[in-house]
């Protein structure tokens, strides 16, 4: 934890709202990105990130300063997004075969990297993540985008290390299977287009 | 062929021992299924590693400040409503209890209004009679007492009373004066 961060945290605990705004400024990006990867659309991500900071603000007295602040925030965000996905059944991406085809990662006639726009790449990622159940999705995101260890993922998601391991194992198998499915879907789609 | 063992090696994050690595390479050369899994996994991981982070819309922390202000206002309204509700419930309960006690005490009268009227008349009559008796006693005393004692007794009593009052007044004044002097 940086000295500035601990100063802000001390100020927040004394009731200084402006100090918390500094923390929001500093950590909006990691929190927002986690929410976006979890929920798959910008509006839900914005809402979830705002809610995360609000929850953190309200329960700041329960924050253990020996833990990393950003890990604590990401833990709140993960739990909130998991709840949202379970409650509202947010459909971040359609699992329709046809919709999969246009965003398929492997083209039989490879396109140059520059042609695939950033938006399409984000969509590809989200279409892959959307096949995972909420908790597995959170584990994968914390592993790949935040470089968290099994212990850190376990702390953030209230899971044991062995549970994290088995969830990641299962998630990776599922991701590979979905990639394969998208690839064959794309090939089939291409064949149909060539024949017509 | 036992794919399970090799799949586990491919899906595991922990670094492989030289033996495991050799075993896996050997299997991959012979097994298209596991080779496919490896390629797919690598593609997914490459995609994840090369997908840039997103930036939240500009003014995120300002929107957060606004949201916090709204949240605080809502909480205050909610708290005030609760306080009002609790107060109302308390007053309501107090009234109910008072009504219950009163109802219990006067239940007999409520059931029979004529009895209530009769008891009120009886009470007024008794008060009126008591007042009349007291007035009668005072009148009798005024009429008889002056005749019992001679006039000299009344003159002496009056003088004594006046002297006592005077002494009392002087003493009180002196005491008050001395107290004022003591005070710094
Ligand atoms: Zn195999």
Please describe what this structure looks like.
- The complex is a heterodimer of chains A (196) and B (184).
- Chain A has helices at residues 3-13, 17-39, 42-58, 69-88, 97-102, 118-129, 134-144, 150-157, 161-195.
- The radius of gyration of chain A is 19 Å and the shape is elongated.
- In chain A, 73% of the residues lie in helices and 0% in strands.
- In chain A, α7 (134-144) crosses α8 (150-157) and α8 (150-157) crosses α9 (161-195).
- With 196 residues, chain A is an all-alpha fold.
- Chain A has 9 helices and no strands.
- Chain A has a single domain (3-188), classed as RNA polymerase sigma factor, region 2, helix turn helix motif (Rna Polymerase Sigma Factor, Chain: A), CATH 1.10.1740.
- Residues 94-108 of chain A have low confidence and may be disordered.
- Chain B is mainly alpha-helical and 184 residues long.
- Chain B has 4 domains: 4-50, no CATH class; 61-105; 113-148; 149-184.
- In chain B, α1 packs parallel to α3 (32-50) and α2 (18-30) packs across α3 (32-50).
- The A-B interface holds A 17, 21, 24-25, 28-29, 32-33, 36, 42, 45-46, 49-50, 53-54, 57, 105-106, 118, 121-122, 124-125, 128, 143-145, 150, 168-169, 172-173, 175-177, 179-180, 183 and B 7-8, 11-13, 36-37, 40-41, 43-45, 47-57, 60-61, 63-65, 67-68, 71.
- The structure holds zinc ion.
- Zinc ion is lined by residues 1, 3, 6, 27, 31, 33-34 of chain B.
């Amino acid at each position: 934890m940086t000295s500035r961060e601990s100063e802000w945290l001390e100020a927040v605990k004394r009731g200084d709202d402006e100090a918390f705004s500094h923390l929001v400024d500093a950590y909006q990006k990691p929190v927002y990105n986690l929410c976006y990867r979890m929920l798959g659309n910008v509006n839900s991500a914005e809402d979830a990130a705002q809610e995360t900071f609000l929850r953190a603000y309200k329960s700041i007295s329960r924050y253990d300063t020996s833990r990393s602040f950003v890990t604590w925030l990401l833990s709140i965000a993960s739990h909130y997004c998991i709840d949202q996905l379970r409650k509202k059944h947010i459909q971040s991406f359609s699992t329709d075969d046809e919709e999969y085809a246009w965003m398929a990662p492997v083209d039989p006639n490879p396109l140059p990297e520059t042609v695939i726009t950033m938006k399409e790449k984000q969509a590809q990622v989200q279409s892959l993540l959307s096949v995972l159940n909420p908790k597995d999705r959170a584990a994968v995101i914390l592993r790949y985008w935040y470089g968290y260890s099994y212990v850190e993922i376990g702390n953030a998601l209230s899971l044991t290390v062995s549970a994290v391991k088995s969830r990641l194992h299962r998630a990776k198998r599922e991701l590979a299977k979905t990639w394969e499915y998208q690839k064959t879907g794309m090939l089939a789609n291409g064949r149909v287009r060539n024949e017509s | 062929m036992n794919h399970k063992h090799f799949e586990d090696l491919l899906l595991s994050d922990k670094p492989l021992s030289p033996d495991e690595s050799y075993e896996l390479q050997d299997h991959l050369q012979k097994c298209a299924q596991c080779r496919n899994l490896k390629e797919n996994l690598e593609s997914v991981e490459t995609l994840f590693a090369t997908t840039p982070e997103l930036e939240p819309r500009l003014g995120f922390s300002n929107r957060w400040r606004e949201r916090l202000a709204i949240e605080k206002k809502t909480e205050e309204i909610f708290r005030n409503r609760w306080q009002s509700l609790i107060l109302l419930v308390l007053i309501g309960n107090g009234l109910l209890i008072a009504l219950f006690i009163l109802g219990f005490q006067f239940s007999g009268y409520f059931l029979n209004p004529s009895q209530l009227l009769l008891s009120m008349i009886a009470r007024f009559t008794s008060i009126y009679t008591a007042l009349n008796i007291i007035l009668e006693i005072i009148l009798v005393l005024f009429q008889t007492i002056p005749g019992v004692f001679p006039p000299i007794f009344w003159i002496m009593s009056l003088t004594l009373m006046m002297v006592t009052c005077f002494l009392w007044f002087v003493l009180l004044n002196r005491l008050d004066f001395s107290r004022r002097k003591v005070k710094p």
